[in-house]
Amino acid sequence: MGGVQVRATLLQIEVDPAETAADRRRRAAALVRAQAGADLVVLPELWPVGAFAADDFAKEAERAGDGPTAEAMSAAARDAGVWLHAGSVVERDPWPDGQLYNTSLLFAPDGALHTTYRKIHRFGFDRGEAVLMAGGSHIVTAALPHAVLGLATCYDLRFPELFRGLLDAGAGILVVPAGWPARRLAHWRVLVQARAIENQAYVLACGTAGTHAGVPQAGHSMVVDPWGTVLAEAGPGEEVLTATLDPDLVTSTRSDFPVLRDRVLGLPPVS
């Protein structure tokens, strides 16, 4: 397209229960620092503790703004000079006895915490995250220099109305950190591509590798363009995945194939 290009890197971290959260933070920070030259770096959902390690959520809870993960990721973003979507953490608010949330952290290249997003749709069907954490109540976007990010997390992928809200808020790149189980890998692939196609937006979907609380993870982080083309896909293990995004492709796709203008809002009731 000839416009500004955005280099995006997804860090598909392995979560190993034999590794402490502190050691994993140090390792993740080193991986972030190694991405100097990227524009945007993305980590997975709940990588400090493991998305299925519900028994550890309360123990590993932290403050979103100045907890150990925020401090490590702020410094890494600043050292690398990148926008860093640091995945999500178990946030407790108010500290120290408040409610738990699954909260994503977005840092600017100067290390400042720019935006947070509390996961709206909690997975578990009356177990795990669904009962231990409160849901977020706000659709969240973040304006970067060359694109608007729309923030979602893992199970949110199954709820297209959230992504329509992000679209209407101006998002052209949808960022989805996840801890997706291997047994539903086929769903992951279909849903990531569907969210890209129906919203004519890039989707950066970053999952974990390894096993959380006995649940093997899918890995297979993906970068999908506004036409639904998979630009890059990881395997099942720990991997660094990089792709170049063209924000102008979002505009041209929506202009050349203008399906979004045919949306019918306020559909009539079922007769």
TrEMBL record:
Keywords: Hydrolase. It comes from the Bacteria. The keyword Nucleus does not apply. InterPro entries: C-N_Hydrolase, C-N_Hydrolase_sf, UPF0012_CS. Its EC number is 3.5.1.111. CDD domains: nitrilase_5 (cd07583). One of its GO terms (molecular function) is 2-oxoglutaramate amidase activity. Belongs to the carbon-nitrogen hydrolase superfamily. NIT1/NIT2 family. This is 2-oxoglutaramate amidase. It comes from Actinacidiphila bryophytorum.
